[in-house]
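Researcher: I'd like a candidate sequence for this fold, 185 residues long. If you have to choose between options at a position, lean toward the conservative one.
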């Protein structure tokens, strides 16, 4: 569990970062053990790609290199929704920089890899497929689209779209990563 809210000084410190780092470590360990993957380059410490929302490059046996963004979502697999971060607001910066697209919209990654800690599963989807699912959902249910406002920390808020699973079920491949979770405890 992580704490968000207006009382929190920075969301990218402490428990929030620890949960994200744990998810990334679990997912990367899983990827490194896959027989179809010959290498995983960890890019998390590279400042240039941190802002671009890319965590790693995955090299496959067939010669491809794909980029992936790893996220942790404690509600995935339990709530019936998939989180899609649409917008981030900074309440204290210069007004001309007050908002920017969320990672779900702007990441140049090929894959989103969501770790679901409540059920110890990894949900993998192509970024373009999740973006299309969001469009399909919001077009079909415009007035009923579920938005989620998060007081991210003392200076930022995040707006998410909660996409019902029925719009996403065909785009995800789900893997059991429980053995990797147990190694981290």
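Model: Candidate sequence:
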């Amino acid at each position: 569990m992580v704490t968000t809210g207006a009382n929190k000084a920075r969301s990218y410190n402490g428990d929030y970062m620890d949960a994200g780092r744990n998810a990334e470590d679990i997912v990367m360990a899983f990827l490194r053990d896959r027989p179809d993957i010959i290498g995983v380059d960890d890019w998390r410490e590279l400042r240039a790609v941190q802002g671009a929302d890319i965590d790693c490059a995955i090299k496959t046996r067939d010669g491809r290199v794909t980029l992936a963004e790893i996220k942790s979502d404690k509600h995935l697999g339990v709530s019936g929704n998939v989180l899609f971060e649409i917008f981030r607001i900074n309440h204290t910066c210069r007004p001309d920089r007050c908002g920017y697209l969320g990672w779900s919209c702007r990441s140049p990654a090929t894959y989103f890899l969501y770790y679901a800690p409540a059920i110890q599963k990894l949900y993998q989807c192509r970024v373009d497929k999740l973006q299309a699912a969001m469009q399909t959902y919001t077009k079909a249910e415009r007035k009923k689209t579920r938005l989620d406002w998060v007081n991210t920390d003392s200076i930022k808020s995040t707006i998410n779209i909660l996409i019902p699973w029925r719009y996403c079920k065909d785009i995800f491949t789900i893997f059991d990563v429980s053995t990797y979770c147990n190694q981290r405890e």
